[in-house]
Amino acid sequence: MFDKVLIANRGEIASRIIKTCKRLGIHTVVIFSEADTEMPFVKEADDAFLIGTSRVQDSYLKMDAIIDLAKQEKVDAIHPGYGLLSENADFAKKCTEAGVTFIGPTSEVIRTMGSKIEARKTMEAAGLPVIPGIFHGIKDENEAVLAAQSIGYPVMIKASAGGGGIGMETVYSNEELKKAFESNQRRSTAFFGDGTMYMEKKLENARHIEVQILADRYGNVIHLFDRECSIQRRHQKILEEAPSPFLTEKTRERMADAAVIAAQNIGYQNAGTIEFLVDSEQNFYFLEMNTRLQVEHPVTEFITGLDLVEEQLRIAAGEELRYRQGDLRIKGHSIEVRVYAEDPITFYPSPGLITKLTFSKDSRVDTGVQEGAKVTPYYDPMIAKVIVHGSNRSQAIEKLNSALNYTVVEGIKTNLPLLKVIGKHEKFKQGSTWTTYLQDYQITSLVKERMDISHG
Predict the structure, then answer these.
(1) The one catalytic residue among 10, 292, 314, 364
(2) Which of 92, 130, 186, 444 could form a disulfide with 107 if both were Cys (CB 3.0 to 4.6 A apart)?
(3) pTM of this prediction?
(4) pLDDT tens track for 49-59
């Protein structure tokens, strides 16, 4: 096992990794920006170093500065967390070249799976079903219109290098497509330096379900079952649960087997997630692979009893997987919600000073802030993840609603009113949710009504 690990991340996930490292007796080193000087993770680590100014480009994305610090501090490995540099193939390569272990897959795998076009080609060659579409780069709006007409509306245009919903839009006509193609291509170029676009058929009432996998360097691959992540705003997840309440056992097994085959075919190592879209008939299609730890990993930890960060560390240190597939069973049901500093109706970020912060002691709370902290406009506005576990889904929902009722965040706007409405919504309780759940059931209108009543 490693003696010293540098965490190339911030906030909640940095604190989460520190917790496991402390339990394992691993010395932790963190980097921080000027905006994060007083954040909890800076105090929790054994050593902390200022890496740059508040802008993410001038701090947490400074690859060479991070590598230089790693060599200076003689760390054994770098854990990238999620977001930031976690899926940057160049960073993974730089770590390896510097003689520092990158806690994740190889740079070659990251590069292949980081291109959504190449990832689909690779998975299709491995025998996984993919959504009908045009997966070569579409050069302009005229070609896009011809492609859409051959597939049939509605279609989704997507940026090959995209993420977090950026560069992605559903369109229903030629006119909509012409407007959307140019704007999303421009956004993708600005955010990712790559304006390559592709297109796929839009599945109606589709569910977003993913399978967690672990793989070591000796060819052993296991799955840790599935998570449903269908409740989203602007293509970004806000509630996840494990296991999915929708899948039959037969489909669950088929999806899990497909995820393992996918990982084996690309020579994957460490923790990763194969994401699928699933239609109303339980047909599933490969969506993408995340070559890192996921934000929603705690729900998988609850239903398996594993610490995924520990497993990541052990795999990266060269250990063989400690479990075989037959050792694992689903234990109960777990739900996670993401508490964001944002307007619950418009989803616009709401930076500012947190004057009061209270969480339920009966739930797991992964957070990177504290009372008196300032939410800045520089980074993702997530305040915390509230995670519950029950012997079954009904009990988990009860615990979720209890935890949300106890949670208090004052001084800024948050999405707590939205989460509370979802937790008590009949369709959610029934498991009747898909990626357009918020729009289809006019959830934000319900939130506004309840907020108006409470303020009236």
Answers:
(1) 292
(2) 92
(3) 0.91
(4) 999 999 999 99
